[in-house]
Amino acid sequence: MLTLTPAAVARHRRRLLRRHRVRTARGALRFIDAIGFCFAFTGGPGGLPGLFDVLATRSIDRMWTWAWQWKDDLVTQRRAYYGKVIRRKPSYVCLKTLPAFYALSGNVGEPDDYLQAFREGRLSMLARAIYEHVLASGPISTRALRRLYVQRGESGDGFHRALDDLQARFLLAKVAEEAEWRNGFVWDAFHRWMPEVVAAAARLTSEDAAARVVDRYIRIVGAAPSPEIQATFAWTPRLVGAAVVRAGLVRASVDGADAWTLPGLWAS
Q1: Which of 43, 129, 179, 248 is the right S-S partner for 50, CB 3.0 to 4.6 Å?
Q2: Among 258, 220, 244, 242, which Cα is nearest to 17's?
Q3: Burial class (CB in 10 A: 0-12, 13-18, 19+), 38
């Protein structure tokens, strides 16, 4: 078993981020592709960094301006995936890693994928209705959907939560910006918009997909205990166990607590 100090783990995470100083959307994409996945704005639970951690500015206003615009550009250009897929926080996933996340979503790329999530209570009636409309009618704007599903005088909170859920479950995707309405998008079914991701995911078992994700995760954070891995990705203990074995992780002690790591990270 490797013995690691919290300071060593913290240094690993800082070294990873110091390689990137981001000023442009292209630089943001390089960071996302290099790291695999991250939070879209501030860092957060599980030790994962956010895009703000590598932005080459100290201005909070500029951070939000850059990150908010790049989010729209990168996603609608199919350069990266964006959704509340990690700890219910806005997150990026690079295209290379995206099939593994999709394979773990429970979807298989069929139009009726959403029904299983609905039967299990993981999708609301409103989310189901929105998805069925998009499925039947094709790409549609946020504004047009809102007219259909938000009554006059309502806040629209439930509507936006339903869109978040559908995007987080890889059922809907943003395919274009809605020029006529600020912060609006055009939505389509994920399996229609990114069929190559669906096809790649079909070649992965859930254990293989989880191993790919956890390998990336440990390369980012350095070391993590099983409960943290489970909480970060909402996996079962059985899936965590299978993933760490397939990824070739080894046990480590961090300040006396059990964790998983990759031996190659500490070879020097």
Answers
A1: 43
A2: 220
A3: buried
